[in-house]
Amino acid sequence: LWRFIPLFGLMMMLLAGCGDKTISTLQPRGPVARDQLFLMKLSFGIMLLVVVVVFLIYLYVLVRFRKKKGDKDIVPKQVEGSHTLEIIWTVIPIILLLVLAVPTVQYTFKVLEDHRQNKDAIHVKVTAHAFWWQFEYPELGIATAQDLVIPTGKKIAFELTSADVKHSFWVPSLGGKMDTNPGLTNVYYLQADEVDTFKGKCAELCGASHSLMDFKVKSMDPAAFDQWVAKMKTPAVVPADAKAGEQVFKDNCLSCHAVNAQGLGAGPNLNGLASRELIAGILPHNDDSLKKWITNPQSVKPGTQMPAFGPTGAKLQDQQINDVIKYLDSLQLK
Ligand code: CUA
C-alpha cells in the first residue's frame, strides 16, 4: 500500500490543477457543457458501479473460499459451458451499455437538430490552420482570428473545417470537442451563460506547435457584442506617425494578413489587433512580443508558416520593424 502513496499524491496534484474555471469540463459554463458533463457523470457512475460490485464479489470469494486448516487439495466445482452464467454475464453488460447509449445517441441527434432548427443562431465558420484559428461571421460580414467573440445566452452555430491537417476545436468550459477536417465541414454549437473569457485548445495532435495552438472565447452581453461588430466594421484611422509602418506592412505583410473587416488570407486577419490580449495566441500583447514574433516566429511557434523578418530572415531593417509595430499598435477597435 505504501508504494501507492506517491501515486495518490500525484493524482491529487493533477486534480488540484483542474481549478481554472475558464478551462474546466467539470465546471460547465453553458448548456452544451452541462449536457456533456451529465453524460460523463452517467458513464462514470456506471463504471463505478461495475468496479464496486466486481470487487465485492471478489472479496467475498477470497474470504468464503479461502484455504482453511485441514483442507485437502480439492478441485472446485467446474462451471465451463454453464448457460446460466454466460447469459447473466452477457445480459448485465448489455443493460449497462443501453443505459449509457440511449442518452448519448439522443444527445448527439439533439446537437445536430439544434443546429438545424436555430434560425436565430449566430453562425461562425471556423477554419483551423497550423497553428492558428480563423473565425468568420458570414451574416455579420466580419472575420477575425485567435479571439472568438460571442454574445451570451445565444446559440453559436459553428461550421468547422481545416485548411491543412486535422485539428480539433475545444473550449472545455463551453463544450467540445469537434474535429476540423480538411475538405469536410462538421457542425456544432456552443452557448455561454455569462460574460467571461474562456480558454480554447486544439485537441488533435497536428504538428510541432499543436500544444501552442490556443485561442480565446470572449463572451459579451448582446449589446456589447453588437458594439464590437460595429467597431470591427469601422476602418482604422492610421495616425501620421504610423504611416511609415503602414507602408512597410503593405509591402511585406498584406499579401497574407488582411486588416479590413472581412478579408482572409494565408495568415490571420489582423483587424483590431491592438485590442486583442495575446500575440500569436500565446504571447502577452506588448511591443516586445510583437518584435519577437516578427523577427523570429519559429522561436515562438515551431513549424509556423509565418516567415522571419529579422536578422535571420534579413528582410527588414530594425527601423522598419519598429515602424511596423507602431502601425500594428494603431489597429485599435474604436
Ligand atoms: Cu491543431 Cu493540434
Automatic annotation (TrEMBL):
One GO cellular component term noted in the UniProt record for this chain: plasma membrane
Cofactor note: Binds a copper A center.
Occurrences of domain Cytochrome oxidase subunit II transmembrane region profile (ranges): 17-115
Catalysed transformations (reactions): 4 Fe(II)-[cytochrome c] + O2 + 8 H(+)(in) = 4 Fe(III)-[cytochrome c] + 2 H2O + 4 H(+)(out)
Limits of the Cytochrome c domain: 240-332
Domain of life of the organism encoding this protein: Bacteria
Domain Cytochrome oxidase subunit II copper A binding: 119-231
EC number: 7.1.1.9
Cofactor: Cu cation
Transmembrane segments: 43-63, 84-109
Predominant cellular place of this UniProt entry's protein: membrane
Molecular function in Gene Ontology: copper ion binding; cytochrome-c oxidase activity; heme binding; oxidoreductase activity
Family annotation (NCBIfam families): CoxB (TIGR02866)
Role played: Subunits I and II form the functional core of the enzyme complex. Electrons originating in cytochrome c are transferred via heme a and Cu(A) to the binuclear center formed by heme a3 and Cu(B).
Family statement: Belongs to the cytochrome c oxidase subunit 2 family.
Protein name: Cytochrome c oxidase subunit 2
Origin organism lineage: Bacteria, Bacillati, Bacillota, Bacilli, Bacillales
Gene: coxB
